[in-house]
Amino acid sequence: MLRIGLTGGIGAGKSTVSAAFSRQGGVIVDGDVISREVVEPGTEGLAKLVEAFGPGILLPDGALDRPALAAIAFSDDDKRATLNGIVHPLVAARRAELIEAAGDEAVIVEDIPLLVESQMAPLFPLVVVVHADVETRVARLLQYRGMSEEDARARIAAQATEPQRRDVADVWLDNSGDPDQLAEQALDLWEQRIKPFAHNLRTGQTVPSPAQLMPADPTWPDQAQRILARVRTACGHRAARVDHIGSTAVPSLDAKDVIDVQVTVESLAVADELAEALLRAGYPRIEAITADNGKPDTRSTVAEFDHSDDPALWQKRLHASADPGRATNVHIRVAGWPNQQFALLFPAWLSADAEARNEYLAVKREAERAGVEGGIEAYADVKEPWFDTAYRRAWAWADDTGWRP
């Protein structure tokens, strides 16, 4: 099952995207629809709203007067929090029922207006945000929903800001133009990314890392933060820490466009326990890789940094992304083992040492050229000898500077 979080501000056009996904076979779980369902006459939800806000929120026939409720609930933060505290748990329970009924093969599209505000983004392997500027949204709310301008602006102001939505968006769909253009974007997204993503999850396939280096992307850290939040949520208390590692964690360093993440755990047994949770988050396990290449013995002024080349201490588990739109490696390593500590040290050392950083880039470019003709083994054959020396140099730098993980 692939779960997609779909969100956007009121009037942005989520319904257009939702409809496009539905036509392709997506199972739509609509937060607005559920929100209306859980406060219909006779429901527990409606009774709690009346208790909190008074009988003035009811129509003569006993149904909820939504404009009257909105005028009260959106007048200040405390009242809005009361509304959310009543409705959100009921919506979540009903959403869970619908998802369970959809089956393991489904692509679930959860249309959640307040996905950002409720901090639900890390629950989804893919978050799609539909955006339109404020003035466009106000005009739509006036024309199609009959709102007053004051009410429309109040509703927009009460929701997440554009920067807050960008922070969680894996995909950003702009709906400032024609709705048909948005529907085309949604269809392309389904065919090029969502459909193969779902297939990869069903079959346990991962996306290969890019073969070529690219100029450093200033958005890599922001992309990594979304992945870290997703992985932390999937791993829960079993992860001692989750870090962005590898070349994309080094500012201004050209690299392959792949985000490397390290999950630190207390044992390999715990790493194995995380396999299903990471699969649900979009990261199948790569069974064939169970260890890193060992490095030479090192001795440090700090006893805990004395490292052995014992192969048993270089074991790990590796997961990678099934999402064709974001190559990612998730390395699970044991706390205190040399491979776990070096993964944290390496980007810190390169970030601080310009000479080492330039050396590494030159080695990467040479390895890239070798890999074009000889494949991944030729690529590794060029890099590994440099790493043996770099390993000792990095730990010497840690001793000199007092670096700690």
Describe the 3D structure.
- This protein is an alpha/beta fold.
- It folds into 2 domains: 2-203, 3-Layer(aba) Sandwich (Rossmann fold), CATH 3.40.50.300; 213-401, 2-Layer Sandwich (Beta Polymerase, domain 2).
- It contains 14 helices and 11 strands.
- The chain has a 5-stranded parallel beta sheet with strand order 2-3-1-4-5, sandwiched between helices.
- It is elongated and about 80 Å long.
- It starts with a strand and ends with a helix.
- 37% of the residues are buried.
- ATP binds at residues 11-16.
- Pathway: Cofactor biosynthesis; coenzyme A biosynthesis; CoA from (R)-pantothenate: step 5/5.
- Keywords: ATP-binding, Coenzyme A biosynthesis, Cytoplasm, Kinase, Nucleotide-binding, Transferase.
- InterPro entries: Depp_CoAkinase, GrpB/CoaE, NT_sf, P-loop_NTPase.
- It catalyses: 3'-dephospho-CoA + ATP = ADP + CoA + H(+).
